[in-house]
Design a protein that fits this description.
3 helices, alpha+beta, about 160 residues, about 45% strand, globular, about 15% helix, seven-stranded antiparallel beta sheet
Amino acid sequence: MTAALLDEFKDAMAALAGGVCVVTALDADGNPRGYAATSVTSVSMRPPLLLVCQAKTSSSYELFSRCTHFGVNVLTAEQAELAALFATPGADRFGGTGFETGEHGTLLHPDALASVECRRRDTVDAGDHGLLLGEVCAVRTRPGDPLVYHGRRYQRVRPLLRR
């Protein structure tokens, strides 16, 4: 792939709006780990499965590719600072951020729009990323507006039509 084609591909992908999530797990010593993700999608309803993409260059890639459980926190429009913190390499991501332990041992944020606890079913090799496939164990939701990432920046969703 040429550099020009790669740049055009990056621009095309920046045109896609993605919900912003914080993905969490505990390492073998019980220390929290997490990262910001916009590539999260449902895969199946029966059984309920979701997919999260993670760069293999991430310092937590090995942990997530082998963990037993992980959490996905769908952030609200008011949580842009939390998203930026989890997108910053080397940051103290959990200090004072309010995460709590879910019923399956994952870390969930009480103010998230939705929190999904998953049992890791598989990790699939996909070029420079890994696809983390999880079977949903528990879900909690609350009303609110989602945080989205579009055009290489955090944004809010604005309704176009009233019903």
